[in-house]
């Protein structure tokens, strides 16, 4: 009897642990009020820890990697996160478009298929190589020192990165910093910023994917001492695909600030990651002071404040719209029923039937 009780308790404990792991915040080890950047940082840290490449033939790590991926896919999507926060629903699940691939871990055949899908217009989201992040965290990568204002042009291999360090004085830190990279429009790359950890290693803190702008692919990180926002068009596309009629209410959901707004005096590490499927990436990187762009920064701050205000207005308007629309739908349905009831009542009265049809159809 005691044995049976012990097994039951172990089973209950296992079920409780499974339920705990399904809570995406607990899986990532973060509070429920975490910012988008804190969610990303926690995911990268946990994914690196349990990545299959680092834990071969370890079923526990493999299961945890799935849980971590699931948690991130729930919390990285504004709509999914809002649904989970309001209902706690376990029905919230990952979507194919949110899957991030580590191209360095794919075989040649799978990489070819991914490249073909991308060529056909299917957006393939990629992540930085787990092996590269591990080397950075262990402090085994080589960094090239740069001066503020220096321009560098190089070629980085696919799924590899070039690391750069820049040391700021107090004055340079207060002036603000811009790091920009450009390449040809055919190339994909990621611009990365790393925090320095106690053991001398580097932990990925910010990531900006390149975007096509005319004949170039560009990416930039901006540290002005105030929030600088970026816009992920894919989030809005998902909202529109779910509900085209009200998708515009979610249009500004993807307008989110960089978590880091300023840099302190001292050494800082950036990296350019080659994100092409098969070929290397030729790029030009420049790190320069934002001091000469005072007017542009104030204009940016003012414009972004207006957009944030409009986002708040849209949230309020959405609630009002759905309330009024529900009332309209109810009244329209009631009106249709009343009209049909009058029709049914008078359909056998020759005079009123003709008169009613004339009034309704007029």
From TrEMBL:
UniProt keyword terms in alphabetical order: Chaperone, Coiled coil, Membrane
Domain J: 23-88
Location of the protein in the cell: Membrane
Lineage: Eukaryota, Viridiplantae, Streptophyta, Embryophyta, Tracheophyta
Annotated Basic and acidic residues bias: 1-24
SMART domains: DnaJ (SM00271)
A single GO cellular-component term on record: membrane
Membrane topology: Peripheral membrane protein
Listed name of the protein: ARG1-like 2
Gene name in the database record: ARL2
Annotated stretches, region: Disordered: 1-36
Organism from which the protein derives: Arabidopsis thaliana (Mouse-ear cress)
